[in-house]
Amino acid sequence: MAARIKNAITLYRRLHNVPNVEIRLHRTVLYNSIFRADSELLVNLHAYATPAADAPVMHLRHREEQGASAIYLTSFERIWTSATHRGR
Questions:
Q1: What is the pLDDT of residue 86?
Q2: Residue 8's pLDDT is what?
Q3: Burial code of 17-27, b = ≥16 C-beta within 10 A, e = fewer?
Q4: Domain of life, per the record (predicted)?
Q5: Which helix (H) or strand (E) holds 70?
Q6: Measured between alpha carbons, how far is 32 from 21 in angstroms, rounded to an integer?
Q7: 1, 8, 27, 78: least surrounded by Cβ within 10 Å?
Q8: What is the pTM of this model?
Q9: How far apart are CA 45 and CA 13, in angstroms?
Q10: Residue 20 DSSP symbol
Q11: In angstroms, rounded to a whole number, what is the distance separating the alpha carbons of residues 62 and 71?
């Protein structure tokens, strides 16, 4: 896992100076990867013995205070507020 994190940080390094882009690190165990841009969410569902690139991805638009998008957005926000900023 450490190698994957290091690889991701290397790949996203170019975004460090882009306005309105933040990268944060956390130690929370997750069962999916959540990518957020404003009210748009991509949720990569992790499946045992399946590479993330082969696992399903849900594209959700947050428009209501209930439902799948609200649940994943709340999860994202809880982790985001406790995560540490990646140094620039």
A1: 65
A2: 85
A3: eeeeeeeeeee
A4: Bacteria
A5: helix 68-82
A6: 21
A7: 1
A8: 0.70
A9: 25
A10: T
A11: 10
DSSP of 31-51: SEEEEEETTEEEEEE--TT--
What confidence tens digit (pLDDT) does each residue in 46-77 have? 899 998 889 999 999 988 788 899 999 999 89
Nearest CA among 23, 17, 18, 22 for reference residue 5: 23
Q: Is 16 helix (H, G, I), strand (E, B) or coil?
A: helix
CA distances from 81 to 4, 49, 74, 85 (A): 23, 30, 11, 10
Beta-carbon neighbour count of residue 69 at 10 Å?
20
